[in-house]
Amino acid sequence: MNEFIFLLVLALVWIVFAVVQDLRSREVANWLNFSLIIFALGFRFFYSLFSQNSFAFFYQGLIGLGIFFILGNLLYYGRMFAGGDAKLMIALGAVLPFSEIFLINLKIFILFFLIFLFFGAFYGLAWSLFLGLRNFKNFKKEFSKRLKKNKKLIYLVMFFGLCLMAFGFADNLLFFIGILIFILPYFYTYAKSVDEACMIKRIKTDKLTEGDWLYEDVKVGKKLIKEKWEGLSKEDIKLIKKKYKEIKIRQGIPFTPVFLVSFLVLVYLFYSGYFYLF
């Protein structure tokens, strides 16, 4: 039991550091995520070597790392996570196997991900509302512009949603699907308006860091540096500094607090016994 408590404390300290770094600089350093993997697997290996008759404690850490490596990459290439968030998710895979039994650990992984999705949705909505209110004039202008620009398409989708709700008197599922479709255009317009009006920032090029997202393509001489999900490379930054003093970048939402809350909730459910009710 003490070995798992050590891993939990280790992960908690590392996640707190990641939250502080993310809130201050909008990035999570690679050394932080990689060091968590090294310490977690290193501890599992030496504990298995000197204190146990088998290496199950170590093997489960490797399996967890492998599963979360796949999950983190799916979230990254699906453009749901930035690189630092994906690597933190992968690193937690080496920590989260609380048991030496794979099926129990698989249940832990699924529960953690469901908790993460729930708090992530709530957190993302709350953060976007905060940004929208803080930049209300810009947000209102962008929202109105997008409503007018896509008015015909929005009305078409809403009409389709109303039709499904009408058929929903015979099938409750259709009614709820119709409601979702009816509000979808406004929700999408809201999200895009927050992104354009509140997440774009002009910064000095000497403050650019590797992985920053360009707002739009930038031309330096004959080379076109494209706005891409992977963000700026060190070479891109060197080229940009030669021509520009300021540039627009797209900022993301600091998502590491969701990791912290989800991890604490999972630990509470596991050690309080509520985990076994799921």
Structure description:
71% of the residues lie in helices and 6% in strands. It is mainly alpha-helical. It folds into three domains: 2-130 and 254-277, no CATH class; 143-198, no CATH class; 200-250, no CATH class. A hairpin with a 2-residue loop joins strand 3 (218-220) and strand 4. Helix 2 (30-51) runs parallel beside helix 4, helix 5 (102-134) packs across helix 6 and helix 5 (102-134) crosses helix 10. It is flat, with a radius of gyration of 23 Å. It starts with a helix and ends in a 6-residue tail after the last helix. The model has no long low-confidence stretch (mean pLDDT 85).
Number of strands: 5
Low-confidence stretches: none
- SSE pattern, N- to C-terminal: HHHHHHHHEEEEHEH
Q: What Rg do the Cα atoms give?
A: 23 Å
Q: Share of helix among residues?
A: over 70%
What is the number of helices? 10
Category by helix and strand content: mainly alpha
Please indicate the percent range of residues in DSSP E strands (runs of 2 or more): 5-15%
CA-to-CA gap between the ends? 22 Å
Main sheet properties: 3 strands, antiparallel
Q: How is the largest sheet built, in terms of strand order?
A: 1-5-2
Spatial shape: flat
Quickly count the domains. 3
Q: What integer is the average pLDDT?
A: 85
Characteristics:
single chain; 278 residues; mainly alpha; 3 domains; 3-stranded antiparallel sheet; two-stranded antiparallel ribbon; 10 helices; 71% helix
Outline of this structure?
With 278 residues, the protein is mostly helical. The protein has helices at residues 2-25, 30-51, 56-77, 83-92, 102-134, 136-149, 151-167, 172-198, 234-243, 256-272; strands at residues 200-204, 213-214, 218-220, 223-225, 246-250.
